[in-house]
Inverse folding.
């Protein structure tokens, strides 16, 4: 039996950060991102402190930098694609700019600063999310969101997506094997109709599977809400971690002003 590659997920390591309550980590994530986003773009020392604090958390969690930095290389091309033209079109009446030596092509100084600002804050946000995901299991994240009074409908939908995305992936792989066994090569334009029919078939199968799952849930007494376990009390270590993170990031922000 083939196993979908999506089934291979990061398992939280046995470290202090992995044992911190998910609610505490979620609050720290939101606070750190808000502090970083509201920092002026010319406070380079503050950004260095933010990234230094994240690197320290990665070391404490004993996470491989390659696993945490992987999402950055996936997201950054899209960020740069959107922001790369800002230095060329952003007006700058006081800061001046730099000529590229190609006709009248030049970039504004404030535009470069804005480009740096977007890239740095995007990388910081992605690293925070990657650190959270690699140090916390997905069911624990759902329980943490529910404990923080996140809308239960959103928590329930996220749980269903996480549970059945692997089923749909296996379905796609079976359809792909069946297609390839019939000699599909996909080299010509008229062969793209096969892909369109596959997408339509996958949609119908997913819809039918969802109907069957819903009827099975109704047969077991489902009342439009998922039964959730009791939430454990926050420990002293959780409050201590929250206090340290808030103090460090707020201190960096205040010192850099």
């Amino acid at each position: 039996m083939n196993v979908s590659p999506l089934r291979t997920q990061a398992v939280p390591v046995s470290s202090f950060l992995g044992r911190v309550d998910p609610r505490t980590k979620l609050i720290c994530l939101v606070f750190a991102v808000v502090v970083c986003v509201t920092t002026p773009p010319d406070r380079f020392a503050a950004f260095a402190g933010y990234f230094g604090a994240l690197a320290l958390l990665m070391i404490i969690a004993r996470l491989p930098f390659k696993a945490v930095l992987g999402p950055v290389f996936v997201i950054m091309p899209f960020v740069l694609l959107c922001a790369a033209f800002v230095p060329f079109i952003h007006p700058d009446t006081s800061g001046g700019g730099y000529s590229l030596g190609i006709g009248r092509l030049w970039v504004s100084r404030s535009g470069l600063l804005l480009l740096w600002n977007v890239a740095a804050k995007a990388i910081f946000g992605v690293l925070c999310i990657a650190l959270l995901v690699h140090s916390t299991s997905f069911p624990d994240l759902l329980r943490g969101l529910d404990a923080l009074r996140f809308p239960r409908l959103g928590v329930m939908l996220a749980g269903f997506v996480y549970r059945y995305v692997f089923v749909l992936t296996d379905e796609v792989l079976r359809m792909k094997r069946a297609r390839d066994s019939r000699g599909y090569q996909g080299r010509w334009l008229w062969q793209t109709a096969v892909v369109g029919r596959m997408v339509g078939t996958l949609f119908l199968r997913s819809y039918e599977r969802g109907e069957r799952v819903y009827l099975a849930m109704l047969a077991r007494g489902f009342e439009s809400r998922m039964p959730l376990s009791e939430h454990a009390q926050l420990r002293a270590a959780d409050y201590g971690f929250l206090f340290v993170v808030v103090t460090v990031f707020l201190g960096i922000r205040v010192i850099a002003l």
About this structure: Residues 1-13 have pLDDT under 50 and may be disordered. Residues 152-219 form one domain.
